[in-house]
Amino acid sequence: MFDPKSFIEEQISDISEIQDKAVVGCSGGVDSTVAAVLVGKAMGSRLLAIYVDTGYMRKGETQQMDELFSEIGINHKIIDAREEFYEAMVGVIDPEEKRKIIGNKFIEVFEREAEKFGADYLVQGTIAPDWIESGDGVRETIKSHHNVGGLPDIMNLKLIEPLRDLYKDEVRTVARELDLLTSERQPFPGPGLAIRVIGEATPERTEMVREACSIVEEELEAAASKGIIELPWQYFAVLLPVKTVGVQGDKRAYGNTIAVRAVSSLDAMSARFSSIPIEVLEKISVRITNTMKNDVNRVVYDITDKPPGTIEWE
């Protein structure tokens, strides 16, 4: 039986032996936040949490994370690297290449900031599914997680990964033990919205999926608060690389397609698609097509389990 209290005590004890400074890549998700708080308890002011706005974050995320870190009391810094990441992604379509480029860019930013801070270590919220799915020469690569398969071959920073052997349900248990408000927050991929834009993740296409993701989140959370549904484990929108014919007024329109994805899971290793009532899906569809009527004219719902699919599309 996993004991979160003992785990926390052991990690703090082990990490306390490190006397150098460290930076932690913190997106505000449960994994990176738990890692930051654990290491922060051991290192105090010798830890700097770095939130990187890549341009591929959810709507309002940067402000929310700034407020969260301030409330938790973690020494932190917000880095606006949107142009840097957008430039690196020009012309990139292959999902593995996206993940590896983003992973490398993160390390470049972390190393720059670590040098300013005088840090020798990088803390990551890596969990077991990240390195299992990334492959290791023995296992097949399902997808290269940015914090594993996306790491450069040569790094100037040494890694601290306190959650490496935990699964998502165990990380949430640790978060509850630490009394973190983010304990129940749905997962968000490290590469962010770049892998929810199928094809080239341009600023314009990213803005479309950002708005669609926000609508999906708002409507499903509203339905859950009313007791209409049980809130899915993860839920979001995907922008497809195809256009289809539609109608606006009495004129032919040629617009983009949004796919809605919602799943239930325990540890992210497998998942079942969520059975969302048709009236809830209709509200999502109407809001997306009305709000984004110049860009999107079709909404579909993904009913694929994992396996054979993965939770994210890329």
Write the layout of secondary structure elements.
Layout: H1 4-15, E1 21-25, H2 30-43, E2 47-53, H3 61-72, E3 76-80, H4 82-88, H5 95-117, E4 119-123, H6 128-134, E5 158-160, H7 168-177, H8 203-225, E6 234-248, E7 251-264, E8 272-273, H9 278-291, E9 296-301
Parallel strand pairs: 1-2, 1-4, 2-3, 4-5, 7-9
Antiparallel strand pairs: 6-7, 7-8
Helix pairs in contact: 1-2, 1-7, 2-7, 8-9
H/E topology pattern? HEHEHEHHEHEHHEEEHE
Oligomeric category: single chain
So how many helices? 9
CATH topology group of the largest domain:
Rossmann fold
* Strands in their spatial order, largest beta sheet: 3-2-1-4-5
Any low-confidence stretches, pLDDT <50, length ≥5? 143-150
Fraction of residues in H or I helices? 25-40%
Q: What is the average of the pLDDT values?
A: 90
CATH-defined architecture of the largest domain: 3-Layer(aba) Sandwich
User: End-to-end span in angstroms?
Assistant: 34 Å
CATH class of the largest domain: Alpha Beta
Shape: globular
- The CATH superfamily label of the largest domain reads HUPs
Quote the beta fraction. Answer: 15-25%
Q: Give the total of domains.
A: 2
Radius of gyration: 20 Å
Instruction: Please state the structural category.
Output: alpha/beta
Give a short account of the largest sheet.
5 strands, parallel
Beta strands, count: 9
